[in-house]
Write a structure and sequence with these properties.
954 residues, alpha/beta, 7-stranded parallel sheet, 13% strand
């Protein structure tokens, strides 16, 4: 296969000989120049004086005194103009994204040389314009139709907001351009337009040869026409007769929409004798396969086998892997087989996916969010920074410091606690203001830069340094005046859009490319990945402040243009290839439509080629434990027999999901604890309330002293309750050792939680006051009983039980008789609405986790039965009732926490003992039965928020 650039090189050599130093070759991008250089050398048997290679951007910039400004600075300058014109105080981080969008619109207006005053005018009445003669009747109708929708008397709020901004856009556009001109900078479209408007073009070469362009903006058309009129321009177009008519007749396909027009106005410089060979390749024999895959990851994993098949990898640069979705890059790079020696990657690696991105993000979080007013830091932010792999690049003592903070339970470390060496002193030093924060980041990046020789590490740190340095320059110059929160958001936005370029020899090896990088290049073997509708064509849903109707009326870029452009990219890419594999994703997850590109359908109908239709399936799959469960091997049984206790929580976990029981209780895979310093987890909240409830009554517990109304009134004083709750906060945060307790400077979430716990304790005391006088027999007491089960050839005794919240003795207001209550406090969850009908439901896995709260029954009835037979706590054999106090729901005057079975209050749990113990015996025997595997739950609702969901495969 001869490439397009081969024909160009051959034609240029024949026309201009070997001395091309007086010629300028202009391309849409830089990549094609490298390949054309090779073709020129191959087409001549003598040394060739190379031409001047330029991109179209280089050419325009050469003729302008303006320079294209830094993208961040451009947004900052637009922001200043916007606030001046509108008087709004929108923050820069909110403005940043749509500021870039607005610059894109201005760029489009200028590159298409539209009259900005007309574009950004509210033309509800088209006759308001002095001169609209340049508009066709169709354009006038389009504009009338659009603005007619805004002329109703009942304008919606959205319309009002749009028009309020729209009416200012013309002024913003003019003010922005004026502001940039004074600084001799511009956005690209502004620079291009200035070159054409000011006619600053100077002919510097004998010939300008434009190669491989497709759609031309108006400014480019003016430039091309000017150079053609000067007799110094030639034009080479890359197309095929499949979509561009041989005789400039009707356009056979939208791929040739623009080139057909330009051939008529600018001509085609390729020699007549070469055109048939160069432009008639699409209909030649091709091996085309359409492959559907369930995920994009499967497509990427197929790269290795595709390259090895028929030894495609041996053709080097004649083989291309083209990504319609560039997020596939990571997976593709990891799928390149070892037999491939050289690879050229034209797209960048996302900076956001590198460790340095997460490190800088955590540093900013610590500095801006994690710093306290007293000069200390919030431990959760310190922990994240010190746990990051890059922390060891800063200091070898980072992990030692992290461990010490954990052991000391230092929740609010200060600088003197953290500055254990020079680099950690630098990490935790005080920084006031944006400039100081940015210079601090630069210092950290300079420190870690030489600590790893990995190319990706070095490049990612360098690119991050570049971003931070750019921001530092803008802050120092006064161009970027924002608060630190906005700075943090801006840094994260810049990281999200940055990429790291790969370095290598572009003209050697397998080519991994995005669609745009394929322009002017030809390949024998092509693997086109993720060729879905939405990816190919891309950008048809791009956002813009300028509505489609107005874009169409004034000749700006529209969806129609983009479809034609991508149609050209698609057809041009495959026109000279002989071996083509196109893959698409059939998944409809994450907003994907799961449809092949419209261009694939078009190729099937109009292409005239036999196309193989294949489906790609993963050859390997993860183990699905939902089929066979987990068998109780000898090792598992040995570990289970080593346990001497089972808690009600473990038993309920088994009933809810046997696999969850295995992962948590047998495999020992625990869910991570939340940081209490940040916000109270449900566990920490419950601990503080339970400890406070115990502390309130500790002086009367087990003493025989009656709890009277007057005693409760004293205990319920707000100052006393506050003091108790504060101490229990300290206990939860700093541990049992009171010598380590420190005063807590509550943050917002902690203050809210503290107030809620205080109210809960006060409400508990109100409930108790209604029952006074009564005795408290025990608080936070461990209660167990033994149960014997078969174990191999013998027996094993297991202790069943746990810690009760409270055991008290009251006089029943209904019967006047004394009874004991086993009380369990519930600070969260929902109250028991209907309860259970019979004891057997407690041990039914189908009922576990439901609204009847069988788990509450299992726990409270177990403790009640233990207390019923305990001679120490119940020497007189009094009735024992299980009770659950739901603090959130305990607001009725006659609130009674005693639970019910079949709508009958459990006055004495002994009445249900036989059925309960039978169910408990069967449950524990099942757990220890080696012949029964651990199975996942049959209730999918239990899986929705399960921490082990990814492990079980259900």
């Amino acid at each position: 296969m001869k490439s397009f650039l081969h024909y160009i090189a051959k034609d240029i050599i024949e026309k201009y000989g070997n001395d091309l130093s007086h010629i300028a070759l202009v391309f849409p991008n830089k990549r094609a120049a490298l390949f054309l250089n090779e073709e020129l050398a191959q087409c001549s048997d003598k040394p060739v004086w190379a031409p001047n290679y330029l991109t179209i951007s280089d050419l325009f910039r050469r003729y302008s005194s303006l320079t294209v400004g830094d993208p961040i600075k451009l947004v900052c300058e637009l922001y200043k103009t916007y606030t001046e014109v509108t008087g709004k105080d929108e923050t820069l981080d909110h403005f940043y994204d749509w500021g870039r969008l607005l610059i894109s619109d201005f760029d489009d207006v200028d590159k298409n040389m539209a009259d900005a005053k007309m574009v950004f005018s509210n033309i509800a009445n088209i006759h308001e314009f002095d001169d609209i003669s340049y508009l066709s009747e169709e354009q006038k109708d389009i504009l009338k139709s659009f603005f007619g929708n805004f002329s109703d008397d009942h304008n919606s709020k959205l319309k009002e907001l749009f028009l309020s901004l729209w009416n200012k856009l013309g002024e913003i556009y003019a003010g922005f351009r004026e502001r940039l001109s004074k600084q001799h900078i511009a956005y690209e479209g502004m620079l291009y337009r200035a070159v054409v408007d000011e006619q600053t073009i100077k002919v510097e070469h004998e010939k300008y040869i434009f190669v491989g362009f497709n759609v031309l903006q108006r400014v480019e058309q003016h430039l091309f026409s000017f150079l053609k009129s000067e007799g110094v321009a030639e034009f080479y177009w890359d197309y095929d007769f499949h979509y561009v008519s041989r005789n400039n007749g009707n356009i056979p396909n939208e791929a040739g929409k623009y080139i057909s027009q330009y051939i008529k106005t600018l001509g085609d410089s390729l020699s007549e004798e070469l055109r048939g060979e160069a432009y008639d390749n699409f209909r030649k024999q091709k091996d085309i396969s359409f492959v559907k895959a369930k995920t994009e990851n499967i497509q990427a994993r197929c790269v290795s086998s595709w390259l090895k098949e028929n030894e495609r990898y041996e053709d080097g640069k004649r083989t291309a892997i083209v990504m319609c979705a560039e997020n596939l890059l990571q997976a593709i790079v990891h799928s390149i087989p070892d037999c491939v020696e050289n690879v050229n990657v034209t797209t960048g690696y996302p900076l956001s996916q590198t460790p340095v991105a997460s490190f800088v993000s955590q540093l900013l979080d610590m500095r801006i969010i994690g710093t306290r007013g007293d000069g200390g830091f919030r431990i959760s932010f310190i922990r994240k920074v010190l746990s990051h792999p890059f922390a060891t690049h800063l200091s070898e003592k980072s992990q030692e410091l992290l461990q010490k903070l954990k052991e000391d339970r230092n929740m609010f470390p200060k600088y003197e606690d953290l500055a254990v060496d020079d680099n950690l002193s630098m990490l935790f030093k005080s920084c006031q203001g944006n400039e100081a924060i940015l210079r601090w980041l630069l210092q950290i990046l300079e420190t870690i830069a030489p600590k790893n020789d990995s190319p990706l590490y070095s490049e990612s740190v360098f690119n991050m340094y570049t971003i931070i340095n750019r921001l530092t320059t803008l802050v120092e110059s006064g161009d970027l005046t924002i608060d630190c929160i906005t700075l943090q958001k801006l840094v994260k936005q810049l990281i999200a859009t940055a990429s790291i370029p790969f370095h290598g020899e572009p003209a050697i090896g397998i080519q991994i490319m995005g669609v745009l990088e394929t322009r002017n290049l030809d390949f024998d073997h092509i693997l086109l990945l993720s060729c879905n509708e939405g990816n190919m064509p891309k950008g048809i849903r791009d956002s813009s402040f300028i509505p489609y109707s107005i874009r169409k009326a004034y000749g700006l870029t529209t969806v129609d243009n983009k479809v034609a452009i991508y149609s050209y990219y698609f057809h041009r890419l495959i026109q000279r290839a002989s071996d083509i594999t196109i893959m698409y994703n059939t998944s409809t997850e994450n907003g994907n439509r799961g449809e092949m590109s419209r261009f694939m359908l078009q190729l099937m109908v109009e292409g005239g080629h036999d196309i193989k239709r294949l489906a790609l399936h993963a050859s390997q799959s993860s183990t699905d434990n939902s089929n066979g469960g987990i068998e109780k091997t000898e090792a598992i049984m040995e570990k289970m027999y080593s346990y001497s206790k089972l808690s009600p929580t473990a038993l309920n976990r088994y009933l809810r999901c046997q696999l969850q029981f295995y992962y948590n209780n047998i495999a020992g895979i625990r869910e991570p604890d939340d940081d209490i310093e940040e916000q109270l987890s449900s566990r920490a909240f419950g601990n503080i309330f339970h400890n406070a409830s115990e502390e309130i009554y500790k002086d009367v517990c087990g003493t025989g002293k009656m709890v009277t109304e007057s005693l409760i009134e004293n205990l319920a004083k707000k100052e006393h309750v506050q003091e108790v709750v504060d101490r229990m906060f300290q206990k939860e945060m700093f541990g049992e050792d009171t010598s380590r307790w420190k005063k807590i400077n509550y943050n917002g979430m902690q203050l809210i939680s503290r107030e809620v716990i205080i109210r809960y304790v006060q409400r508990l005391l109100e409930i108790d006051k209604a029952l006074a006088p009564f005795n408290i027999l025990a608080l936070e007491k461990d209660m167990f009983e033994e149960i014997t089960i078969p174990a191999g050839n013998g027996k094993k005794t297991i202790k069943i039980g746990g810690r009760i919240d409270r055991l008290d003795m009251i006089t029943d207001p209904d019967t006047g008789r004394r009874r004991i209550r086993v009380i369990d406090y519930k600070t969260g969850g929902t109250d028991i609405k209907s309860g259970i009908s019979e004891v057997e439901e407690i041990f039914d896995p189908a009922m576990a986790g439901g609204t009847n709260h069988t788990d509450y029954y299992l726990q409270s009835m177990l403790y009640s039965l233990i207390a019923r037979k305990c001679k120490e706590l119940n020497p007189y054999g009094l009735p024992v009732s299980p009770a659950l106090i739901f603090i959130q729901h305990a607001f009725s005057e006659q609130y009674d926490p005693t639970i019910y079975i079949n709508k009958v209050k459990i006055i004495d749990v002994a009445e249900y003992e036989e059925d309960y113990r039978k169910g408990m015996q069967q449950l524990v025997e099942e757990i220890y039965n080696p012949g029964i595997t651990f199975q996942p739950t049959a209730n999918d609702k239990h899986c929705e928020y399960c921490a082990y969901k990814a492990l079980c495969g259900k």
